[in-house]
Prior knowledge:
The structure holds two protein chains of two kinds. By secondary structure, chain A is mainly α. Chain A has three domains: 1-131; 134-267; 286-485, no CATH class. Chain A contains 17 helices and two strands. In chain A, strands 1-2 form a two-stranded antiparallel sheet. By secondary structure, chain B is mainly α. Chain B has a single domain, classed as Orthogonal Bundle (Helix Hairpins). In chain B, helix 1 runs antiparallel to helix 2. The A-B interface holds A 136, 139-140, 143, 146-147, 150-151, 154, 159, 162-163, 165-166, 169-170, 173-174, 176-177, 180-181, 183-185, 187-188 and B 14, 18, 21, 27, 30-31, 34, 37-38, 41, 44-45, 48, 60-61, 64, 67-68, 71-72, 74-75, 78-79, 82-83, 85-86, 89-90, 93.
Amino acid sequence: MSEPSLLVLWPFLAAVMAAVNVRGATVWGGIGTLGTAVFAVSLAVSVHATGPELIFIGGWVTPLGIALRADGLAAVMVCMTAAVGVAVSVQAAATWGLATTADEPAERARQRRGFWPLWLCTLSALNALYLSGDLFNLYVTFEILGLAAVGLTALRGTDEALRAAFDYLVAGLAGSLLLLLGIALAYAAIGRVDLGSVALLNDTGAGRVAIGMVLAGIALKAALFPLHFWMPAAHSNAVPVSSAILSALVVKGALYLVLRLILDGGFDTGPLRWGFAALGAAGMFWGSLSALRATQLKLLVAHSTVAQIGLITLAISVSGDPLTSLAWQAAALLMVSHALAKSAMFLAVGRIKEKAGHDTIAELNQATLNPGAAGFAFAIAAISLIGLPPTAGFLGKWTLITGLIGQGQGAWIFVAVVLMGSALSIAYLWRVISCFMKAPPDGATAAPRVPWQAGDMAAVALALAALLLGVFAAAPLALLNGPLL
Amino acid sequence: MPDLIYHGVGAGLVGMALYRAATCADLLTRILALNVLAVGIAAVLVAAAYRGSDVPPDAVPHAFVLTGIVVLVAVTAALLALAERLERDGDAGRDNADE
């Protein structure tokens, strides 16, 4: 058995075991996540050493069989998922404990038993998505991903979380049905559904309608403005580890497919691309303004995801031919940096809410919370999202802006949009960081300083990873510079 | 000609279902709208498989329809479970408020 198929099979088998053997769910979760991380690193090493791989499952060649394709871009995404996954798993083990104890509340046991199979299914679906070579496989992976992600949203079990999960599932199903319709039309137009032949779709009217349908479905799943209506509630009502997974990893699946379609020449048609770029810019402003007006910390971070998705979509839609322009690498780097920073941020916000007892931004000051490790992780993640050097976010925005300037006159407006979006992100993230520094109100004394705890480890590690990726960017760039499949 | 009828019916169902799914607040109506959406897409797929009255239809779109049905059953079950939980919790909340 070849390695790329293990990336899909291993977490899926672990998910089945975690669901069957509920007492050992955490152990199976650890085995599944760590094993996948090892396979992810070995895939990256082998792709870097020997170039992209194409694997036909069971020896059946396309168009009859299922092909997995592992190139540099897929390897970077798989490694990103593995890195965030390991950190989130550590946090989940710290939150819910390793095994059942005698005096454990029923709610805690229920959440632990539910989390591990759902997370492992999410991991398996994401890896399958990144490695898929044809559109119909991608549709199936989106369905697995959608169902598992809805389970993660509903895990908290409160009325708001269930309602958010319902809305999420309705939006996700409508999106994937549109995707299926697009795939069917693509098959009707060109008689194939593998990603290698999507460039043919530009030649016929029916093909362009098919691409439009596929993109509409993806936009709904990626929460691209104005189809993001379901997303802030789903991401802010979930438990912290679920929020981190949903915001950092799950939305990336849909964005990755848009990037793939562009790289494979899938949508060359001008209006569609400029439309996507405009929606990305609009999403950046709308998400930032909503984050500026948010009263709850979790909601602010969720709205910031809308803004960041807008930025990544903008970067994807302006990236031209992969051979002449490097803007697509900016999109990939922005996806990785957002995954690291946003998961750190959601985990940190979860800790802050736990310590302070609430997450109302206006009431956060040093009387309710003396910032410790969680505040530190939040601040570092914010620096990466804003794009200050030497973080990964800086690298992404730098690559994007130099790529845009290289494209000539028409691209200047997008440079301005990206810079304005960065300025807005400073504004809304500063609202939170200034609260950490706000002195206690008159008469109140500062809360005791919280010592560093094991529960803060994952958030701090992810934030430091976002910081250091900017310094050690040679590794992902070497993978991205390799040949694509 | 028959495939055109199916295409038209499918497109109509897709439009109506998307409208209802987007505008209705009732949970069960939205679940049903999504099922109608899937039926509409299945109609388009079946029509796409048609190659004339004397030729056997293309099997690949049929396979797509089957996968779509399997997925739809699973997602509908999850939606119904969520809706049932929401209705029950909502009733319990109202009962508590009355007491």
